[in-house]
Amino acid sequence: MLNFLIQEGAEVAQNLEPVAEEKTLSIMDLLMTGGIAGQIIIGVLFILLGVTLYIYFERLFAIKAASKMDVNFMKQIHDHVAKGNIQGAKLLCAQNNTPVSHLTEKGLSRIGSPLEDINTAIENAGRLEVYNLEKNVSVLATIAGAAPMIGFLGTVIGMVLAFHELATSSGQAEMGGLAEGIYTAMTTTVAGLIVGIIAYMGYNHLVVRTDKVVHQMEATAVDFLDMLNEPS
What we know:
mainly alpha, 9 helices
């Protein structure tokens, strides 16, 4: 009987032991407890993220529209030119309204000139089309490099403030508060890396999509010049 009471008492004592409260950490807590400097850095990074997403999707839709091309486009151009219907060929180019059709229309407008002049005109028009396709894409490359550096700047500022607090407290600063200040400062680096990675991936994806359109333009220019070189 005595052993039973002792065992019951031990179980009750174990149940009465205080349970360590698990400390949770939310993203909002990190953002709001980073101090004025940290919040400004986070705000700048959010603006850069918005600019990144806007430029990426705006250019993606523009490049996607530019890459659409009728597979029979050059065949129809060839038929019009073979019949001497240059105006009909130009009208077909205007209806397509793509970089490829713009180059073809430029070549059509120079028919009758030496092939070298036609080739030069097409190349100049191609440079303008590539410039339009790459408009603002370089901003993504800049953000990809600048965002991590801005985030790291916020971390350095937070670390300086944390150690300043430690120095001014004569070494009596509470370690919990000091550690909280340090991990809060690190959030700016995390945010900067996230924005930088998104901008970097978006930039490279747009470059790949633009290169495909450029290859289409080059292939079309070659086909057009070959068509003009065909014997009558």
